[in-house]
């Protein structure tokens, strides 16, 4: 089963990359774009970054992008501004695929960890690293 999931995740990786919140952002977008710590955040795409070199892996947070799931699901960040673990918007993309029917919308890393422990989803590497700080949503 993991081979099938790996194939699907790899096949959909380009689609997810093309629709990730930072790819097309030239200036700031103050619309809801990413969930983190149970809140919605806006973003501003800055730059692709080289992969970690073994000495700076801890300077990236994970950004979980869903290849399937509930309507309204946004990518979910591991941390956000105000969280001591937040690294300023340096991301290690992770691709997520639900393995259950009718999955919920998740809005925090804690929820991702819970569903991962339950076996409700599969997480694979997105092989993309980039800088994209989180900004407050403005209405």
C-alpha Rg (nearest Å): 14 Å
The amount of beta strand, in percent, is 25-35%
**Total number of helical segments?**
2
> SSE order in H/E notation?
HEEEEEEHEE
Helix content: 10-25%
Overall strand count: 8
The major β-sheet equals: 8 strands, mixed
Which structural class do you get from the secondary structure elements?
alpha+beta
Average pLDDT for all residues: 85
**In which order are the strands of the major sheet placed?**
3-7-6-4-5-1-2-8
Terminal residue distance: 43 Å
Count up the domains: 1
Describe the structure.
The chain has one domain (2-135). An eight-stranded mixed β-sheet has the order 3-7-6-4-5-1-2-8. It is 20% helix and 32% strand. It is an alpha+beta fold and 139 residues long.
Spell out the key features of this protein.
139 residues, alpha+beta, 8-stranded mixed β-sheet, 2 helices, 20% helix, globular
How is this fold's topology laid out?
Layout: H1 2-19, E1 29-36, E2 39-43, E3 47-48, E4 61-66, E5 76-77, E6 90-98, H2 109-118, E7 121-131, E8 134-135
Parallel strand pairs: 1-5, 4-6
Antiparallel strand pairs: 1-2, 2-8, 3-7, 4-5, 6-7
Provide a short characterization of the protein structure:
The protein is an alpha+beta fold and about 140 residues long. The chain has 2 helices and 8 strands; from the N terminus they run αββββββαββ.
